[in-house]
Specification:
The chain has 173 residues and is an alpha+beta fold. The protein has a single domain, classed as 7,8-Dihydro-6-hydroxymethylpterin-pyrophosphokinase HPPK (Alpha-Beta Plaits), CATH 3.30.70.560. It is built from three helices and eight strands, in the order E-H-E-E-E-H-E-E-E-H-E. The strands form two sheets. Strands 1, 2, 3, 4, 5 and 8 form a six-stranded antiparallel β-sheet that branches. Helix 1 packs antiparallel against helix 2. It is globular and about 40 Å long. The N and C termini lie far apart (50 Å). The structure holds adenosine monophosphate. The site of adenosine monophosphate has 10 residues, from strand 5 and strand 7.
């Protein structure tokens, strides 16, 4: 089994619902080991676009990284992800950040994710759920200084099945 970290992000459509769909999709094939808070972040690069919601999901999987990536792309497509403009707005983006202690350099798959340490909106949620995470060369991610703007907001991850508003047992009196 490998412990893997997947970054999820959305800035198009129902952003919270897109993140929930990513977690449900990942949980359908792997064991969910952790889900970070949701970080709202201003877009970096690309055309003018709305703010992103970002989070990190930790999973335990028996599958190889290439198979996991294929599932991730299927989860993106199910939320109507289109690749129109590089770094443009997107309904759902999944990035394989870390896969156990493996360094992978295949056509179409580089792990650790090449821009992992450039993005505070990835590193912060990652450390929240996996504080001791290390790169394949042993470097602790927590020891790396990452530049970037403060998040616009940090929210609890939306519950997949929320209790009814007002709570209670559902019995009316
Ligand atoms: P994008 O969704 O625009 O960030 O790009 C996704 C493409 O990047 C996919 O088709 C993958 O083949 C490729 N890719 C390479 N390394 C990774 C990675 N670590 N995580 C996700 N996608 C990756």
């Amino acid at each position: 089994m490998s412990l893997a970290a997947v970054g999820i992000g959305s800035n198009l459509g129902d952003r919270f619902a897109n993140l929930v769909a990513a977690v449900v999709g990942l949980g359908a094939e792997s064991l969910l080991a952790g889900v970070s808070s949701v970080y709202e972040t201003a877009p970096v690069g690309g055309p003018e676009q709305g703010p992103f919601l970002n989070a990190v999901v930790i999973i335990e999987t028996a599958r190889p990284a290439a198979a996991l990536l294929q599932s991730m792309l299927t989860i993106e497509r199910a939320r109507d992800r289109k690749r129109l403009v590089r770094w443009g707005p997107r309904s759902l983006d999944l990035d394989l950040l870390i896969f156990g202690t493996e360094a992978i350099d295949l056509p179409g798959l580089t792990v650790p994710h090449p821009r992992l340490l450039e993005r505070r909106f990835v590193v912060e949620p990652l450390l929240e759920v996996w504080p001791e995470v290390a790169l394949p060369d042993g470097t602790l991610v927590a020891a790396v200084k990452v530049e970037g703007a403060d998040p616009l907001g940090v929210y609890p991850f939306p519950a997949v099945s929320a209790p009814p508003k007002g709570g209670g047992s559902g019995v009316s009196r």
